[in-house]
Amino acid sequence: MNDKPFVSLDLYREYPVDEMQRRAGEFYEEVQRRRSVRSFSDRPVPRGVIEDCLRAAGTAPGGAHQQPWHFVVISDPVVKRRIREEAEKVEHAFYHERAIPEWLAAIAPMGTDERKPYLEVAPCLIVIFAVSYGEGTGNERAKHYYVTESVGIATGMLITALHHAGLASLTHTPSPMGFLNAVLDRTANERPFLLLAVGYPADDAVVPVLERKPLDAIATFM
């Protein structure tokens, strides 16, 4: 028997169809402006904005409502420098030893390489950790379910919330990412999922010319 209490769905809001369409269209117009940025200003960002965006990410659906995510926000320049140094070590090994030619060709239009100066310049780094288990009663492990899916959804919501607030971001997944546990003193049940650079775009920021797939290429209605 489920011993969790249930309450009425009072928070739900239904809108007339024309308003639904307007809201959906306006949201699309807003998020289609989102671009990943590799050149950041060093202007500080308001902590309260980051906090509210993290709260928004924390509303993501997750397996059994276990909320298997943890966000570490870094603005300390010393810690950011260490993260950059460690990230560039593993990225150098990846680009020069492990990356296959097909991958290098695919990312060539982005102009990326092992150098990651934005990890120091961006005023805020957010490391998202996937928490594989929690502590149950008696210190036994409480397994978390659908961790990758849950954390992926929360990360997408965080990126969208940051964009909605007027900030730019860039996802970064150095491989491997285990150094983040050591740098940030995280426990063994937390696996680095993604490193997010956050801030205002630099005044001279540019982005690649890209074309997003049309709806009929990404969706099928049956």
Give the low-pLDDT segments: none
Mean pLDDT: 93
Counting DSSP E segments of at least 2 residues, the number of strands comes to 6
The DSSP helix count reads 8
Describe the model.
There is one protein chain. The two termini are 37 Å apart. The chain has 8 helices and 6 strands. The longest helix has 22 residues, at 77-98. The protein has 222 residues and is α+β, with helices and mostly antiparallel strands. Helix 2 (47-57) runs antiparallel to helix 6. The protein has helices at residues 17-31, 47-57, 77-98, 101-107, 118-121, 147-165, 179-184, 215-218; strands spanning 69-74, 124-131, 133-135, 141-143, 168-172, 190-199.
Offer a few descriptive terms.
16% strand; globular; 6 strands; 222 residues; two-stranded antiparallel ribbon
Outline of the structure:
It is built from eight helices and six strands; from the N terminus they run H-H-E-H-H-H-E-E-E-H-E-H-E-H. With 222 residues, it is α+β, with helices and mostly antiparallel strands. Helix 2 packs antiparallel against helix 6.
Secondary structure layout:
Elements: H1 17-31, H2 47-57, E1 69-74, H3 77-98, H4 101-107, H5 118-121, E2 124-131, E3 133-135, E4 141-143, H6 147-165, E5 168-172, H7 179-184, E6 190-199, H8 215-218
Helix pairs in contact: 2-6
